[in-house]
Design brief:
5 domains, alpha+beta, Helix Hairpins, five-stranded antiparallel sheet, single chain, 47% helix, six-stranded antiparallel sheet
């Protein structure tokens, strides 16, 4: 409908009758109203930017003003093939933007569905003749419907109904199609604006710099990240050439052709780029560019994302610069590791040597001490008894030193475990301290014991190791004191759950200075290491005592001044115990001998050392028992297979051909009564941990070397049922 149409009608007025003239004037006025509405609609579209605002404006402000009593705008859902009511005027819209009973009509159903399917506008003069009519909130008599489409794509329909039959005509259809055409164009424009808005939101939220540039290299769009990166505001950035922004024109332009080629061929270009910011600072950015193409696939622009990696580049450069130093340090570490491994190997070799040496010394010493004991049982004159006593003391001193070496090697390898039992601290430590009185008084020293008033204070502790600490501390005081006093003081306090033990040994000996105090608990260290030694010893006693104290969770400290004596204090805390658990060996022997009559035993002895064979044979003969000797474990197994009359086996551990451990395993696998024969280990490995290991391997008990004849007899009798 145009102005020309109105002018043509006006020219017909001169040839009409009065009645015809009135009808023409009414038609002219209606068409003028249509033109005013369309013109106002076109102007109003400029300020509309959202889909909802558009469809509600069309329904309530445009179609309603054209004189249509009812109007509904449908949006087409292509995924569901449905027409969905989105805006209305008339009975469907009582107020605001409210829809009464919103419908969704399938594609092809009813008048609206048929228009959507055919994309052709239709007028239905009488809906009673329409078989597929879809009734909404109230019945209608006539209907007009036009499609909304843009660039061949269906967007929806505009549908109007009227209660009068034959109400709609071609003029209505013409004006409604004009409204639909302008509405369709604006719907597409709103979609574009909405998409641009979403893209703008995305770009604004990206921290990295985002720049869109055309094929000539000029910036057409950027985000706030680009403003921060370049140091310019967006007005300066948009319209600027990328090479000018980078500030290194020659270098950037030189590689531009190559970058564009990579974008076309690979669809992406990425690499580091140096950039001069607005403040003149040179930074390095990591750039990733992707081409933007039109519908034909032609490369029309590029979108680039950049991130400042200057700190990473600087860090990488520092790493490169320090690479040589790192390699040098690595070489030093590798050498240190080799040195450490060598030191560990040397330490292991030393520990193994000490253990093997002490074991090797204990075996012949066991023979010497055993023979001294046997000789002491014979008729001797007074001079012989004196000489034998000296020999026994020397042997015991040597055994004490060997045991210290063995204990220290065991501490190094972690093989010493405390064997806790109920110990009467007052009784055990008091008796041990009293046993050293003769040695002190033999040197003319005054020997004083200060003990608690309680007679029985029981704790859980390793009695043997406690006594070992006490003997070392008191023995050390006696060694280094030539004149004066030795005072041993034991103080105990308890909170009902634990007992705090404080044992001090004070002497008036040679003393030592502060420098010596720093090394007095080190191994093989002595206060006086010159040739004019005050006492014999290897410098192991205090080191062993200190390490045993630490193993108990306690400590030993020493205070002294040269020529003013010394004070050694041992402190430890022990849990309280209910009562004694140990029984004296002598009591065990007496108990066994009272219960058992004299036994005629036949004992198999596996021992490779000739001296120890003689010793054990004499000891067993002393008890009235018969014995058979073999020199290795293999012969012991063979003897048990051949003869079943043996009552017990005494098994040395270290032997040629087959050791005692392997022999025990073989015996336990035999058939017959020999498999269960009692086996008692004879060994220089006499620690409690060793004893438990031998028991776990199938042995019944252990007798350490040098052999204590009373303990040997008690152990054998305890195993004979």
């Amino acid at each position: 409908m145009t102005i020309h149409d109105i002018e043509s009608l006006a020219s017909d007025l001169k040839y009409c009758t009065d009645d015809e003239r009135l009808a023409l004037l009414s038609e002219i006025q209606q068409k003028e109203n249509y033109l005013r509405v369309l013109n106002g609609f076109a102007v109003s579209l400029i300020g509309i930017s959202t889909y909802d605002d558009l469809v509600w404006y069309v329904a309530k402000e445009v179609v309603a003003k054209l004189g249509f009593v009812d109007c509904v705008l449908y949006q087409y859902d292509d995924a569901k093939k449905l027409l969905v009511q989105r805006a209305a005027s008339g009975g469907k819209n009582p107020e605001g933007r409210e829809l009464v009973n919103p419908l969704s009509i399938p594609f092809g159903k009813g008048v609206t569905g048929r228009v959507a399917e055919t994309r052709e506008a239709i007028i239905v003069a009488d809906l009673s003749q329409e078989a597929n009519y879809v009734e909404d909130i109230s019945p209608a008599a006539s209907e007009i419907c036009v499609p909304l489409e843009f660039d061949g794509k269906l967007l929806g329909v505009i549908d109007c109904e009227d209660p009068r039959r034959g109400h709609f005509n071609e003029d209505h259809l013409e004006i409604l199609e004009s409204v639909a055409s302008m509405t369709s164009s604006k719907i597409k424009e709103c979609e574009v604006v909405e998409n641009l808005g979403k893209q703008a939101q995305i770009l604004s939220r990206v921290n990295d710099a985002v720049v869109i540039s055309n094929m000539e290299g000029y910036v057409t769009e950027c985000n706030s990240g680009a403003v921060s990166l370049f140091g310019y505001d967006s007005k300066h950035l948009i319209g600027s050439h990328v090479s000018e922004l980078i500030g290194l024109n020659a270098e950037w332009m030189e590689g531009r052709a190559e970058r564009l080629a990579q974008l076309d061929n690979n669809g992406v270009w990425r690499g580091p780029v140096k950039l001069e910011r607005a403040d003149g600072k040179i930074i390095t950015i990591d750039v990733s560019s992707t081409p933007l193409r039109d519908k034909s696939g032609k490369h029309v622009a590029s979108i680039s994302v950049g991130r400042d990696i200057s700190s990473l580049v600087e860090a990488e450069q520092k790493l490169k610069e320090s690479n040589f130093e790192l390699r040098h340090q690595q070489a030093e570490l590798e050498q240190a590791l080799k040195d450490t491994k060598a030191a560990q190997s040397a330490k292991l070799a030393k520990d193994t040597f000490l253990a093997n040496t002490s074991h090797g010394l204990r075996t012949p010493l066991a023979g010497v001490m055993g023979m001294i004991d046997l000789l002491d049982e014979t008729a001797l004159n007074s001079e012989q008894k004196e000489l034998l006593s000296i020999a026994g003391k020397s042997a015991n001193t040597l055994l004490f030193l060997i045991n210290e070496v063995l204990d220290l090697s065991k501490l190094d390898t972690g093989k010493i475990a405390l064997q806790e039992e109920a110990v009467n601290l007052v009784g055990a430590l008091g008796a041990a301290a009293e046993s050293l009185r003769p040695e002190a008084e033999a040197k003319g020293l005054r020997y004083r014991l200060v003990m608690p008033h309680q007679e029985h204070v029981y704790v859980r502790a390793d009695q043997n190791r406690l006594l070992q600490i006490m003997f070392n501390l008191i023995g050390n005081a006696i060694k280094y004191t030539e004149v004066g006093d030795i005072e041993v003081c034991l103080s105990l306090s308890s909170d009902g759950s634990f007992v705090d033990c404080d044992l001090s040994v004070k002497d008036t000996g040679v003393g030592f200075n502060a420098e010596a105090a720093g090394r007095i608990f080190e191994r093989f260290e002595q206060v006086d290491a010159t040739n004019r030694k005050h006492a014999q010893g290897a410098g192991l006693g205090l080191a062993l005592a200190s390490e045993l104290a630490e193993l108990m969770g306690g400590s030993i400290v020493a205070k002294s001044q040269p020529d003013a004596g010394a004070v050694f204090r041992f402190e430890a805390r022990f849990p309280c115990a209910a009562g004694p658990e140990r029984q004296d060996v002598t009591n065990k022997i007496e108990e066994i001998e009272q219960k058992e009559p004299a036994l005629d035993l036949n004992i198999l002895v596996a021992e490779d050392n000739d001296v120890n064979q003689i010793l054990v044979r004499k000891l067993l003969n002393l008890y009235g028992w018969s014995s058979t000797f073999v020199e290795n474990g293999l012969d012991a197994v063979a003897a048990l297979k051949k003869e079943h009359s043996f009552d017990l086996v005494l098994m040395d551990i270290r032997m040629p051909v087959m050791d005692g451990i392997e022999a025990t395993k073989e015996i336990r696998q035999l058939n017959g009564p020999s498999a269960d024969i009692p086996i008692v280990a004879l060994t220089a490995n006499a620690l409690p941990s060793d004893q438990q290991e031998f028991v776990d391997l199938g042995m019944n008990a252990l007798v350490p070397k040098p052999i204590d004849k009373a303990l040997l007899k008690a152990t054998i009798l305890a195993q004979i049922k």
